[in-house]
Every structure is written in structure tokens, then in C-alpha cells.
Amino acid sequence: MLFPQLINRNIVDVIVVFVLVSIYSVRLIHNWVKQWRGLGHEDWRYTNYRLKMGNKFWVINLTGLQLMPTIMVYLGSISLYPVLSLRTSSLGLLDIIAIIVTATAITLEALADQQSYKFRRNRENSQEFITTGLWKFSRHPNYLGEVMFWWGLYIFSLAANILYFWAIIGPIAMTILFYVVSIPPMEKRNLERKPDYPEYKKNTSKLILWFPKKRN
């Protein structure tokens, strides 16, 4: 029989997760293509590491810039296994929560990226930075969406098989990746290059969407 592993399983959740992950993936690729500047362009973070590390750059490039993120994504993807292969029950409350969290995450990240892209195309100088839209309530709403996506997948895994609670290492790893590794260098660069950024940082939440503090 074709696809016997799907016997005695509710395939609805498989389709839902497949659709959500596909939308996430296509949006991510589209966002990359839209901002791609050609083979000659190098991300400023790579340039900084290259200048700082010199001949040892290949070490940080291999381990920190290539291997570590790949491992993090692999850990985050563990949540997909129980969803796609182990579920024996029908959709429940956890599935609904997972759908809401994951769909919200994709929407949040897409909207934040679009707002940022539109702002950067229209700004008058490089010292300006976006403080409107979602960026009024978070300094990194796009990263918030990314982190939420992996937590959404984890909730799907719990709904499929509670014994996979240990898959929480995935979303925790992704949260650490963005909160500890990705955000700090961007914050440092903005503080060095944008005179008004310290005030924005003082009044605006780092990741979670929240009302900005009132300026004195």
C-alpha cells in the first residue's frame, strides 16, 4: 500500500505543518532573493570577522558562521519528527495553539522584513533607522517572528507525542542563537553608526513586542 506509515494517523496535521513550513521557507527565500546584491557582496558581519581574525578567519567561518547555525536548525527541526511520523490522535487544543503561534510568527517576520526593506529603500541617509510599524514596539520584530516559528513547531511536536518534550532543546537553541549571537553585534553596530539609536534602545523592547517607554 502506498505510504503505509500514514495508516491510523490523522493526516490533517501533516498537511497543516507542511503548508506552514513551506510558506515559511518560500518567504525566507523570497526575502533573500529580493535583497541579494550579487556574488561580490559580503555581509558586514563576515567582513568584520575577516578583518578581526585574519588568517584564522576560516576557523570562525567554518565553526561559528556555517556549522553552528546548521546544527541549531537541525535541533529545531527535531520537532517535525513526531508530527510527521508518530501521531496517532486527531487534532486537539495544542494543535490549534501551534497553528496560531506558527502562523503568527510567519506573518510577523514577513511584515517586519517588508517594513524594514521599504524603509531602507526610501531613507535619506544610512544613519536613519526604522522606528515605525512593528519596529516601534520591538527593536528586532523579525527575529521575534523567527524565534516564535521554532516554538510553534515544538508545540506541534507536543501535540503529536508528549514523550518528545525533550525536543525543547530546539527552540531553546534557536532562541539563544538570536538573542545571544545575532542581536548583540547588530546592536553594537547600530550604536556606533546611528547617533539616535541609544535613545531608541533605551525606550524600545529588544525582542518582545511591547509599548515603548515615554521619552523624557
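[next item in queue]
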Amino acid sequence: MLTISQIAKKLNITNRQVHDLINYGYLTVSKTNHYPNKGIKYLFSEYEVNNLDVHSSLAEIYEKSKKKSIGNRPICDFKKVSRTVNYYENYLEKIAYYPEHEAKLLKICFYLFHLNHYAKTLTDLSSKLYKLKNKVLNKIYNDNKNIIKTSYLIGPDKKKIWLCEDCKDNARTANITYTKYMQKELYCTKCFIQAVEKEYYSLIEFVIQIDKYKYVFHLPKSSAQKWVAIEDLPKKNRNMGRYSDRMYYYGRSISRVEEKVFPVKMIIEELNDYLND
């Protein structure tokens, strides 16, 4: 692992240029170390540094900096990264005053929230990450039944639809595909509809709240029912809007920058340590 100063010396560039490489996404923070009264130290992968075409990257940054369009702005504000890491350290310090069991739960929920973000964005890892999420929520649920609130959100069936000739004509006239026509639920009573899987879109919702810290997680019913007695849960009808896992810190949702600061490797390691504890 290399620090900013070590990268600058190794590549024979200034610290400011290293910051530019970070801000424009050519270098990513791999790890952070916190030192009491000395702030944060950011560490970077030596492998990534060795494989960086520094002169071409700096030339591209220079060209981008001359243009003011949104697409050429830095994708990462290093000051925001710094504030986010400080927020994380502050979060850990504050929850340390809670009973040990609650502090541990809040810490794991923090990592689990970020795992879900990565599962949605890293498609090559999504299956592995969702399996890990399932295991972690299983343990959280079994170890914290006095804290966690669970609900059964009843969703619609998965359907297979055969459009009638009139609806096919309507779709062609509207210049939309049959699939889009069905997604918009424009089909009529003459169309043949078959329920392929009952309650396919049902979810189990897990709400964890300790004082002013609140987390909301979701799993498909098909996954959670293997270890949750869903027949005993309070039931609600699920509307088909977006259901995302959420984290609230003193009443506010976590920011997009905060979602991206914590490396996926760190998140996986922390959650696996929790499972093996």
C-alpha cells in the first residue's frame, strides 16, 4: 500500500497531481487508516499505481479541466471523500457508547447497507454478494429478534400474457413493442393471462432501529421464507415502486458519495468476520 506522498515520489509528480488522479477516477482509495489526533491516511494499491499510465492520464485530466461540461467534471471530490471518512469515524465513535451488542449490530448494518449497493452495481459479483447479504440478515434476524421488526410485503404474481389481436394492433399503432405494451398493463380482458408464480414480487422487510439510527433491508420472499416464519409476520400490500435498502443517520439518507467510499473488499471481509464470530 502506498500513501499520496509515496505515489508522488514514485511517479515523480506533485501531490496535487496525485489528488487530480484520484478526483478524476484514475486512482481509487483502497484503504484508510485513522490515527487519533492525526487525521486520516489514505492508502492505494501499489499494483494499481504500477499499471497507471500517468502521463496519458494527466494529459486527459488537463484536457477535461479546460472543458466545463458535466461529463468532464471530476467524478470524485477528494474533500468529499475526506468528509465521508470523517463521518464514518465519527459514526464508529458514537455507536461505541451503546451497549456492546447494539454497537456491533449498528456496525454490521453499516457494512450490509454498502454490500447491497455493490450488489446492484457490480454485476459480475452480484450473485455472490446477494448470497452474503442473505446469510448476514439471517444471523442478524436470529440474534436480534427483540430489536428487528419484520414485515411481509405482499406483491403481485409473476404473469405470462398472450395479447389478443386487438391489443397487438393497438401496440403496433402506438409504435411500442408487445413487451412494453404488457409492462404498461395496457392489455384487455380478452388477453390470456397466466400466473406463473404466485406472489413472485413479494418481499420481506427488515427494519432495525436503535435510538436515531435506522436501517431498512429487503429480501425476496422466496429467499427469506427459508428461515423466517412468514405466516406470523404482519402483512402489507407492496406497491410496485422501487424498494431499496436504506440507511438513516439522524434522520437523513446516506449520500451517493458515502455509498462509494468504502471498498467492496473491506465490506466483504467485515461481514464474513461477523458470520464467523
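[queue empty]
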